[in-house]
Design brief:
alpha/beta, 16% strand, DDE Tnp4 domain-containing protein, Harbinger_derived_prot
């Protein structure tokens, strides 16, 4: 386990500048362009949470972390785009919390409360807007920055909107599925049994989710260029720091 964490630190150090960062102005422009082409001008991605089973959760914490399935879980909140880029990840809340509790605790809208928002500029029905939004399911609050589907739509217009919103909202669910299929450590239950190991596990999960957009070819080239001996030296270097 120690080797895994050390190797993770080494890989993150090399790729963090490109993949472990907040969206830049060009990233925001790309997200807005994709959203507009899909019928949602101003959309910055889709928002949702997933539960990660905690296999060796201490008995004294089991009630606090018991999720919807009855087993202890820890929650990952993420925002993903059409290309499955997870550009926001917040991980570590006990499974007893719902999506609203996680949202209140996360830093997704922390800058917004200070009047700082991603640079968005778009028009809807000839009205100008300067703040982007996220697609989410019905459990989330009805904020101007969160667009939900229409419950029980009746008119053709409302039915069309609900269908399109639910289709685009599936981006984050697809991202969760791909994340678990590419990284088995995320798909399986956690086996840590202490708070110290849990903190390390949280960091690992967060970094893996942010590294998802890294092309597999980049990762293979990285390994081939380093070689096993260099990887071991790199791991040793990070163990010493």
């Amino acid at each position: 386990m120690k080797i895994i964490y050390s190797e993770n630190r080494a890989i993150v150090n090399i790729f963090s500048e490109k993949y472990l960062r907040s969206p830049t102005s060009s990233d925001i422009a790309r997200l807005l362009y994709i959203g507009e082409n899909r019928g949602f001008p101003g959309m910055l991605g889709s928002l949702d949470c997933m539960h990660w089973k905690w296999k060796n959760c201490p008995t004294s914490w089991a009630g606090q972390y018991a999720g919807r399935s009855g087993s202890p879980t820890i929650i990952l909140e993420a925002v993903a785009d059409y290309d499955l880029w997870i550009w926001h990840a917040y991980f570590g809340m006990p499974g007893t919390n719902n999506d609203i509790n996680v949202l209140d605790s996360s830093h997704l809208f922390s800058n917004l409360t200070q009047g700082i928002a991603p640079p968005a500029h778009y028009f809807i029905q000839e009205k100008e807007y300067y703040m982007g939004y996220y697609l989410a399911d019905g459990i989330y609050p009805k904020w101007s920055t969160i667009v939900q589907t229409i419950q029980e739509p009746r008119s053709p217009k409302n039915k069309y909107f609900a269908t399109q919103q639910e289709a685009c909202r599936k981006d984050v669910e697809r991202a969760f599925g791909v994340l678990q299929s590419r990284f088995a450590i995320v798909k399986g239950p956690m086996s840590v049994n202490s708070m110290h190991q849990l903190n390390l596990e949280e960091k690992l999960h967060f970094r893996i989710s942010k590294l998802q957009k890294m092309k597999m070819s980049d990762f293979k080239i990285f390994l081939l260029d380093l070689g096993i001996s260099k990887i071991k030296r790199l791991i040793f270097h990070y163990e010493m720091h």
